[in-house]
Amino acid sequence: MFPGLYTDNASAPLQAGAGLRRAYGFGLYSYCAYVNETAGPCTSRTIVYPFRPYTVIAKDVPSNYSNYTNTILHNSTFANYPSLARSSRAACCLFLLGSILLFTSLVMYVWFRR
To answer: What is the 3-state secondary structure (H, E, C) of 48-97?
Structure first.
């Protein structure tokens, strides 16, 4: 129906207009884009990764479909919802802080247990 919109190349670069993937998986530190159940690239891990799914998906759309995508989704709540990135950044920061405090408490427990 839409030739060239999706890619079957699992090694195609992300956010380069190479085509949409069948599934996107977002996490606290990065995201992955899969062409099937197991094959697909992931971005490099960053500590405070903002959750911006519209930006990621829109940059994967090939250039001959980008006008349609921008017209349909650009002014939607999904595309312009600023708290998505803020909330994900706050979650990453709290997770990092919790991990540091947990490690510190474990070290202190072992140190004073002696």
So the answer is: CCCCCHHHHHHHHCCHHHHHHHHHHHCCCHHHHCCHHHHHHHHHHHHHHH
